[in-house]
Amino acid sequence: LSPLSFQSLLVLGLVAAVCLGLNLLFLTVYLICLCCCKRDQDPESKRPHSCCVTWMAVTAGLICCAAVGVGFYGNSETNDGVFQLLYALDHANQTLTGIDSVVASTTLQMQGALEQHLARLNELLASRGDYVQTLKFTQQLAGSIVLQLQGLPAWQGVSTELTELSGQVAYVEYYRWLAYLLFFILVLTVCLLACLGLAKHSRCLLLLMLCCGLLMLVLSWASMAVDTAAAVGTSDFCVAPDKFIMNQTDDEISAEVVHYYLYCDQSLSSPFQQVWGGGHPLWCCLGLGGVCDCAHSPLQALTVFQRSLTTMQIQIQGLIQYALPLFPTAEKDLLGVQQLLNSSETSLHQLTALLDCRGLHKDYLDGLIGICYDGVEGLLYLGLFSLLAAAAFSTVICAAPRAWQQLAGRCRDYDDMDEEDPFNPAARRMAAHRPPRGQLRSFCSYSSSLGSQSSLQPPAQTVSNAPVSEYMNQAVLFGGNPRYENVPLIGRGSPPPTYSPSMRATYLAVTDEHVRHRGDFPA
């Protein structure tokens, strides 16, 4: 990175830190204002804002789910872009390795097997000076091919650097993808913990939710800083990738070759292959004989390879045609030289295809598209995820004090309840742990309730005790202890307890009879 780019990344990191500080300052001011408003309120007006807490929790959950969805998409896009870059690097590395392999194999053939065949042919054809001169010329052409192949750029260093770069990028991308995946799971876990704390009305879960919310808030802004810095740094590279690559190129690779592969302009000629530009014979410009000026004949490596190989094939074909009938023992070596030349021609075509700019230029464009489009797009989505996650956890932190206030209000309401109230659920739970009371008499029973109004009824009114025992059994069955009422059930204006079908029928019959008897007496 240039000093200017490094300073830009530092500025972005400072901006993210300032945003985190402002966010924490806002939360602190909010909590202080909430505490002050709570003190200024009258004790009678301090009621929990359950609706506000619920809506804040719902909002935080929705924002959290949206953030995780955006984060998964951004993480996948970034991963796809990086793997497209890795594929391009591997393919380019295979191309460069193939160039070195073809050059090495062709050089070995020219220096090893071909020289051996030519040495034996010199012995067999020693009696004919013209044939020996042809073999010597062929050997010089083979030496010129080896010399031109050695003048090609050595791609081994570039291939090694690409291999190291590919390994480092793959290593960093794996742990980056895994870290974000764990971060998404942690975000969902904290949101689930917040919902569980609000649903269970647990102070411990609320405290844990508050601490985790603060931690996730800091992590969200840190992720925002990393994503923004990575996106900006990648964008700086994508603006002028050719300058960056040319600055990083090894000295063994000329600027002309790098420019050829980066731009692949069809109007420009290949630095490895040009059309024959001189009016001099090939062996003159190769220094094989004669005096000539070849400064204006830009022969390049593949051109020399191709023309030298063609000349050698013509020379060997002439020897096969004219020398073989006179020297039959030279057939094996002549056919061997011809086979080597045919193999070298195949290698020439492979080398021409590998050195063509279109293959490496396509890999170069694929890598740029992967990192500059998919990669940067994924980083921007990850930055949006960080913003949404920060907003969600800020909402969770704002909801925690109100939820705590709501729990405190519920505790005060339970403390203010009358334990003797038969409709208080807490009193019923407490009654289950008390020892059973002794049997009270008819003043608290159903029969006593009827007897308390005997002055308003005729003496002949009698009621069976069966419903009373059934009512007591029902009370023991559902309440754990018999319910004793200190007010008569008839005419007291309060809701009666739950009756069984038979008890309800008996109660309605007695009530109707009671009303009918009261109508017989004058008021």
UniProtKB/TrEMBL annotation:
Membrane topology: Multi-pass membrane protein
Pfam families membership: Tweety
InterPro entries: Tweety (IPR006990)
Cellular component GO terms, alphabetical: chloride channel complex; plasma membrane
DNA-binding as UniProt keyword: no
Residue ranges of the TM segments: 6-32, 53-73, 177-198, 205-224, 379-400
GO molecular function (one): volume-sensitive chloride channel activity
Keyword DNA-binding annotated: no
Compartments, as annotated in UniProt: Cell membrane
Principal place of residence: membrane
UniProt keyword annotations, A-Z: Cell membrane, Chloride, Chloride channel, Glycoprotein, Ion channel, Ion transport, Membrane, Transmembrane, Transmembrane helix, Transport
Summary of the function given for this chain in its UniProt record: Probable chloride channel.
Family: Belongs to the tweety family.
Protein name: Protein tweety homolog
Classification of source organism: Eukaryota, Metazoa, Chordata, Craniata, Vertebrata
